[in-house]
Every structure is written in structure tokens, then in C-alpha cells.
């Protein structure tokens, strides 16, 4: 791994994000007035939950015979998430089982692709989480070119900078700006605590509407005025 051009979050902070559902993180982003929830990406290996800092890649389309998918895993370290901006393309892949095995061997946390990937069964069997728009078999070789690495990219409509925190589970992929990570974590933890309190009340026989009222459910995600 080369030196990364972003501030490293403490492992304890990343673990704290990984312990939270993306729903609470997304609500925290809403409360703070920050974008972050990426539309349209789904888990290729349901049941995984990850958090890690983004190592970003951006691809360009090319004609037959041009371009290369590139080599980039040396930029990432253990626990990082590869974030690939392939402009949402559904016609060719930028990730398959060779990358999966190499990424797993390096201790990477996951890969998130605004586009498609292949060799889904192999990735599931290998235990490496991937989020993308869909599965497809057609190679990206001679169809895409690696334009840039460690630059701002766009996943869906969300800008992701190198080092931003990507959190993903069965519900969603969310991006937390690096400079806002501490604030988002504090708010997300508060939201999760209130939702757990609501559930505890319901389990104790409290009416749903009353439990929600007690803990301010309807304004948990609302930005203070």
C-alpha cells in the first residue's frame, strides 16, 4: 500500500459506524443537512455490514481496442472500501473474481460500484462483500479505461472523496464526508438509542403512537431550525 492522501479515522470510529445500520446513519445525515444515501445499489452478498474509508476510482468508456481496466489495489489498505465510479453502466463489468480474491487477501472491507460486477457466486463463496447496480458477465476490457484514482467520484448522485467513510448493509450504501464523520456518528448513535427505546416500550406493551411520541420519533431525522 502507498501512503494514502487522506486522514485516517481511528479504528474505533470505523468499528462504531460498522455497528450501526445504514438507516440510522442516513437519518443522521438528513438531520445534519448532508447528502449521503446512494440510490440503486444493492448487495451482491446479502447479510454483510461494512464500514471503511473510500479508495476511489473513475472509469471512462472507450471504443473497441482501447483502454485498460487498470491496477489500483496497491492504493488500498486493510479495512478500506474500493469505490468505483463507472457512471452507472450496466453493459460491462469492472470487477470480477480475480479482483475479489486479491482484495480479500489484502484485507479490504468491500467494493462499491456504480455499475455492475461479475463472478457473483465466486465472490459470495469467498466471503467478500460487493455492492453494485446488478450482476453481468460482459468484460470491461476494451470497453472502459481507468481515468483517475484517488479523486472525487460520484456514486449515483452522491459525491465521494478519497477517505470518506462508506457504510453499507442490506438496506443501502451511505457515504459520510470525512470531515463530518465525528458529528454524524454522534447523531446516528443518538437516533439508534431512541429507536431502541421505542422498541423497548412497544415490547413492554406501550401503544406505538405513545412510544413514538415519548421519544420524538417523527423528528429524529429533521434538521433543527
TrEMBL record:
Do you know which InterPro entries this protein is assigned to? Answer: RraA/RraA-like, RraA/RraA-like_sf
**Which CDD domains does its entry note?**
RraA_family
**Superkingdom in the source lineage:** Bacteria
- Detail which positions bind Mg(2+): 119
Please give the cofactor(s) recorded in the UniProt entry for this protein: Mg(2+); a divalent metal cation
GO MF: metal ion binding
What protein name is recorded for this chain?
Putative 4-hydroxy-4-methyl-2-oxoglutarate aldolase
Species, as recorded: Muricoccus pecuniae
Amino acid at each position: 500500500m502507498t501512503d494514502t492522501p487522506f486522514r485516517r479515522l481511528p479504528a474505533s470510529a470505523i468499528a462504531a459506524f460498522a455497528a450501526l445500520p445504514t438507516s440510522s446513519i442516513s437519518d443522521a445525515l438528513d438531520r445534519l443537512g448532508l447528502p449521503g444515501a446512494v440510490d440503486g445499489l444493492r448487495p451482491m452478498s446479502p447479510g454483510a455490514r461494512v464500514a471503511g474509508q473510500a479508495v476511489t476510482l473513475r472509469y471512462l468508456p472507450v471504443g473497441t481496442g482501447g483502454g485498460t481496466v487498470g491496477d489500483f489495489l496497491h492504493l488500498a489498505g486493510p479495512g478500506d472500501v474500493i469505490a468505483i465510479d463507472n457512471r452507472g453502466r450496466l453493459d460491462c463489468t469492472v470487477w470480477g473474481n480475480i479482483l475479489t480474491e486479491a482484495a480479500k487477501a489484502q484485507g479490504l472491507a468491500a467494493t462499491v460500484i456504480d455499475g455492475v460486477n461479475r463472478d457473483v457466486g465466486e465472490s459470495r463463496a469467498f466471503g467478500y462483500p460487493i455492492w453494485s447496480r446488478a450482476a453481468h458477465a460482459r468484460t470491461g476490457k476494451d470497453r472502459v479505461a481507468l481515468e483517475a484514482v484517488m479523486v472525487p467520484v460520484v456514486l449515483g448522485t452522491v459525491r465521494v472523496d478519497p477517505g470518506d467513510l462508506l457504510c453499507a448493509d442490506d438496506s443501502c450504501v451511505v457515504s459520510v464526508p470525512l470531515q463530518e464523520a465525528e458529528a454524524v456518528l454522534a447523531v446516528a448513535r443518538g437516533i439508534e438509542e431512541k429507536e431502541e427505546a421505542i422498541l423497548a416500550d412497544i415490547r413492554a406493551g406501550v401503544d406505538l403512537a405513545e412510544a413514538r411520541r415519548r421519544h420524538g420519533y417523527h423528528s429524529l431525522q429533521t434538521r433543527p431550525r
